[in-house]
Amino acid sequence: MCDIWKDNKNLKQLTEQDVTDLLISLKKFGTQQVVMSGGEALLNTNFFKLCEILKKEKIKVTLLTTGLSVKNNAPQLLKWVDDLIVSLDGDEQVHDTIRNIPNAFKKLKEGVEYIKSVNPEYRITARTVIHRLNFRNWAAIINEAKAMGIDQVSFLPADISSHAFNRQTAWSEPKQHEILLAEEELSSLQRVIDEIINDGIENFYNGFIAESAEKIQAIHDYYAAFYGLNPFPYKKCNAPWVSTVVEADGSVRPCFFHDTIGNIRDASLTDILNSTEAISFRKTLDMSTNPTCVKCVCSLNLSPFAKL
């Protein structure tokens, strides 16, 4: 659940010069893939130029998008972006309610279907944040994703306790409980999960659902942990060691959830990631005890043999 759009009064955006300068470090690190995110990255008027700069260096580009303008940008997406990850919040009614944008679902579906009509092999996956407003719609989300031709769906719980995604302060109790399931709703969530796993087991066997059944169950356990019913689920993650986040204002983070360690407008990415502070952070980070990692909703565990 992203608040980036709320605090972008100065329209902070990465420029061509920023990305050109970044290339020196990206090439040095042997970077293979860049994920463009936002807000909505397609609102950056330089977006495809940034993609072109990266693609010319044989760096794969993935776009994480709301999908609202996919159809309008289809020719350039097919040319400069290797794959899409679209945000899918529910069936048409639920999705539009959560997005608070009329016809958001229709535009997303039209975009996906148009891209697939032009190139059926073009990979489009969906990511869904499961929370209080849509968990009962979970089976419908899977069905809608299949119907529009999405290749794979991925699910995670809502981050309600961190400063990530441009929150100046962590969400307060009233805001948290708009998204956090009430304790008495946990049994309903468990029933939904049981149905997802038992009635749709083929979705796990064929990989349509990206996560294992155990990771889907962990979404329940994550919300239950807020009520002291179980520990927060452990996540195997090496994001701070294999990737980094560069924000629109140039800030650099080890991952979305940890504090800023520098800015590309003050120093090169190479110098930032090899600074004493950054090296010490990586050497001492214990994910089993670090408060941010313990409550983290997301994980990236890239094996040495992963194909990007």
Outline the structure in words.
- By secondary structure, this protein is α/β, with parallel strands linked by helices.
- It contains 14 helices and 8 strands.
- It has a 5-stranded parallel β-sheet.
- Helix 1 runs parallel beside helix 2 and helix 8 packs antiparallel against helix 10.
- It starts with 15 loop residues before the first helix and ends in a 14-residue tail after the last helix.
Blueprint of the fold:
Elements lengths: L15 H13 L4 E4 L10 H9 L4 E6 L8 H7 L2 E5 L4 H8 L4 H15 L4 E8 L7 H10 L4 E6 L15 H7 L6 H14 L2 H4 L7 H13 L13 H4 L2 E2 L4 E3 L8 E2 L5 H5 L2 H9 L6 H4 L14
Helix pairs in contact: 1-2, 8-10
Give the rounded overall mean pLDDT.
90
What structural class is derived from the secondary structure elements?
A: alpha/beta
Radius of gyration, taken over Cα atoms and rounded to an integer in Å:
19 Å
How large is the count of helical segments? 14
* Uncertain stretches of 5 or more adjacent residues: 163-172
| Helical residue percent band | 25-40%
N→C terminal distance: 26 Å
Shape: globular
Assess the beta-strand content as a share of residues. 5-15%
Please summarize the sheet with the most strands: 5 strands, parallel
Based on DSSP secondary structure assignment, what is the total number of beta strands? 8
**H/E series:** HEHEHEHHEHEHHHHHEEEHHH
Strand order of the largest sheet: 1-2-3-4-5
